[in-house]
Amino acid sequence: MINWRTALLPPALAIIFAMLLSSVALLISGANPLEAFATMGAQLFHGNTAVSTVNLAIVYYLAGLAAAIGFQMNVFNIGVEGQYRFAAVVAAIVGAWMELPPVLHVIAILVVAMFSGALYALLPALLKVYRGVSEVITTIMLNSIVFGIVAFLINPEQFGVLHGNNLSTAEIAPSGRIPGIPLGEAGTLFGFIVIAGALGYGYWFMLTRTRFGFELKASGESKTAAAAGGVSARKMTLAAMLLSGAVAGLVAMPELLGRDYVYAMTATQGYGFTGLAVALLGRNHPAGIAFGALLWAFLDRSAVSLESIGIPSEIATIMQGTIVLSVVVAYEIVRRADLAAEQRRVGRAGRNGQPAGVAEGGAV
Amino acid sequence: MTEPEPVVELTGITKRFPGVVANSDVHLTVRAGEVHAVCGENGAGKSTLMKILYGMQQPDEGTISVGGQVVELRNPQDAIRAGIGMVHQHFMLADNLTVRENVLLGAEGRHGMGRKARAELTKLAERTGLHADPDTLVENLGVADRQRVEIVKVLYRGARIVILDEPTAVLVPQEVDALFETVREMRSDGYTFIFISHKLDEVRSIADEVTVIRRGTTVGTVDPATVTSRELAEMMVGSELPSPETRESTVTDRPVLRISGLRLDADDSERAVLDDVSLTVRAGEILGIAGVEGNGQTELVETVMGMRKASAGTVELASGDGELRDITRLGTLARREAGIGYIAEDRHRHGLLLRQPLWSNRILGYQTRKPVSNGRLIDPGAARRDTERVVEEYDVRTPGVEVLAGALSGGNQQKLIVGRELSGEPVLLIAAHPTRGVDVGAQALIWEQMRAARHDGLAVLLVSADLDELIGLSDTIRVMLRGRLVSEADPATVTPTELGSAMTGAGEEAA
Questions:
Q1: What is the third-level CATH fold of B6-237?
Q2: Is the ipTM above a cut-off of 0.85?
Q3: What does the record list as coiled-coil region(s) (chain A) (predicted)?
Q4: A-B C-beta contacts closer than 8 Å
Q5: Tens of pLDDT, residues A310-322
C-alpha cells in the first residue's frame, strides 16, 4: 500500500511555498510574478527546450539515484560530484583508447565508468567503516581533489588533446557511442534514457524485492536492530557507498557517449550536488527522483527565458533552494501527522470506535 | 494519629494522548507525613499521573492543590517551588561529577557553594542514610547509593513531598529493606512520600494508604493493613492475576546449547566482562539467569547471538540430528539460521524497525528463510500473509499489517516479536526480559507461549530482572555476578530473598 498523502502532499506543498517565496522576490525586484512563471512555462514549447530538459533530467536522475542509494543506508554521499567527474575522465580516456565492436565498446566504457566511480568512493567507505571518519568530510575533500586529477589527466603530456584553445580527452570512436532518438525539429533525445529507466527499475526491484535491499534499508534505519537480525552494518555501509559510487560513475555518460564524445576541462560541473537535492525531493523513490529530476531540469532550462523579459534568471535558483528547504520541512510535518493518525487508528482497533485503555494495549 | 491535613490533592485529572486516554478522572489525596502508595500494572497510567504532579506534563482537565492552594505546575521548577520532588526510576545523575557537585548542580542559589552548602549536605546525607563521601565520583557508587544521592538532591531543593518512582525496581531485596528503613525514619521527621510501585508485598509493608489505578483511572484508596494482597491484586488487574508458574517438568536429557569456558574482554581493557561461563540448556528446559543488571547478562546474550566476539571458549548448538555443532565462529545470521530465536532486551534498539510496517519487521532476522524469502529475493506477499497469521495467533492489537511498528504499544510490539521468533521453528530461544514494560494481558500471553514452546521441546535461555518470573518459569536458575556464574538455585525451593542475596554476592561464601 502506498500512502499517497504522505508521498505527494509534501512536494506539492513545497513547490507552492517556493513559488510564493520567489513571487515575493520577483515583486521586490519590480517584476510581475505571473508573467515570469508564464514565460518559464511557455519556454517549454520553444525550439528544443523540451527535449533538452529531458536530456538534462536523465543526467540528474542518475545523480539522484546515486545519492538515494547512500541515503537508504544513512550515508550522505556528497562525493557523487567527485565520483562522476573521476569516472567521466577515466572512461573517456579508456573509451578513446579501446577498439571494440559497437555494442561491446559501449558496455566496456560503462563498466569502466562504474568501476572508476566505485573506486573513487572506496577510500571514504573504508575510512568510515574502519576508522569512523565521516563520509561527509572525506567526500567533500575528494571532490576538490578531483579537479586536480582531471586537469592532470587531460594535460597533453598525459592523455589530453588540444583543440584550438580547449583541452580535452581524445575522441571516442563511433563504435563506443550511444545513438540518440531523433525527434525531428524538437531535437535528439539521449539514447541513455533507456538505460536510466532500467537502472531506476533495478533500484526499485533491489529495494523492495531483494534480500540485499531489505538489509540495506534495515541497516539504514537501525544499525542495532539490523545487527540483531544478522545484518552487518559495516558490510552494508561499504556496499551502499560503493554502489552509490558506481551509479555516480554513470552520471556523465549520457553526455559523453550521446553528445560530446570527449571529456573537456569545460565540461559542466555540479551534477552531483543537484543529485542530492533531487533525491531529497523524490524521497529516494525511483519515480519521485524522476519527478524531481524533471522539475530541476525544467527550472534550469527555462530560466534562460527570463532574461528576455528583463528578469534575472537567478530567480530559478531561488526557487530551487526554497523547494529543497521546504520539502524537508513539509515531509517532517506530514510524517508526524501521519504517525499520530496511525496511533489513533491503532488505538481504535477492536474498540468499537472507543480509544483503547492503556492496559489494553493503547500507546502511552 | 488524627487525620492530618491533605498536602496534595488531585481532583478529576484527565490527560489524553493521541489515541488513548492515559488518565481519566483521577482523584488522589495525600496527607502530610504519610507514605502513600500509587499502585497499578505497567501502563496503567501511574507514570503519566506523576509526570503531571511533577509539572512535566499538563493535565487536560482537573486541578492540583498543594497545601490547600490550587496550583498550576507548568514545569518541574514550579513543582519544586511547591515543595514536590521526584526521584526518577532512571537516575538523572552526572557520572563524572562528585556526589556534592551532583547535589549542588542547578541549586547553587539555595546555600551557595561553600561551607553552608557542605553543612546542609552533611545533614541531609545523615538523614537519608547516605554514607558515601561527598567527594567521590558518582560513577564509583552502587545503585543503592546513587538512589540516595537522588533523594538528597531532591531534599536539598527544599522538597517536603517526595515522589519515588518504582524505587525498588533496581534494588535487591536487602537494599529494599534498607531503603524502607530510611523512608520510615524520614516519615517520622515529617516528610511525605508518594510511592509508585506494582509490587504488592512492598506496598503492603511500607504504605499507610494505597491508591489503585487501573486503565488510567483511580479504582479506589484502601488501607493496606485491612486488605489482602489478593484483594489488592484484583483491584489492580480487574480479574485474577496471571501466574508465571510452569507445571510439570518437560526437561529432557538432550543438550541443545552448550557453552564452555566463554570469556569476553571489555572493549577498552583486559578486564573480563564474561569470565569462564559454562552452561548447558537441554531440550524442553528453561534455564534462568538471575543477576543484578550490569553483571554480564546482556553481554552473555549478545555473545551467544554472535553480536559480540568471544575472546575464548566455545558455543555449541544442536543441529537437526541432535548432534552438537560448534557455532563459535558463525555470525549472527548463521546462528539464527541454525535455529536460535532471539527476544532482545531492548526491543526498540534490537528487536524492531520502528519506521517500517509490521510485515517488514516480520522479515527482520528471517530475510533468508521461508516463507518470507527464498534466500535472495524477498516475498512481500508471503510476508504480509504470515504477519497476519502472527497478528492473529499472538493477539497483536493492530488494525492491519501495514501499520508502522512504532505506532504499536510496547505489549503489542513484544507480542509481535515473540510471534516472529517462535515462527522460525527455533531449537533454542534466547529471551532477555521478555515481559519488561508490557501490560498484564501481554505478559500472560507471552508466558503461555513460552510454556507451550517448552512443552514442544524448545530450549530456552531466560534472562530476567523479575525474580517472580524467573522462579515461576525456570527449570534451573543460575546466578550471575561480575561476569561469572556463581551459584545455582532450584526454583522449586528458592525464595526471592535468597536469590537476592546470591545476586549481590552475599551468599557466595556460603555456597
A1: Rossmann fold (3.40.50)
A2: no
A3: none
A4: 170
A5: 888 888 888 888 8
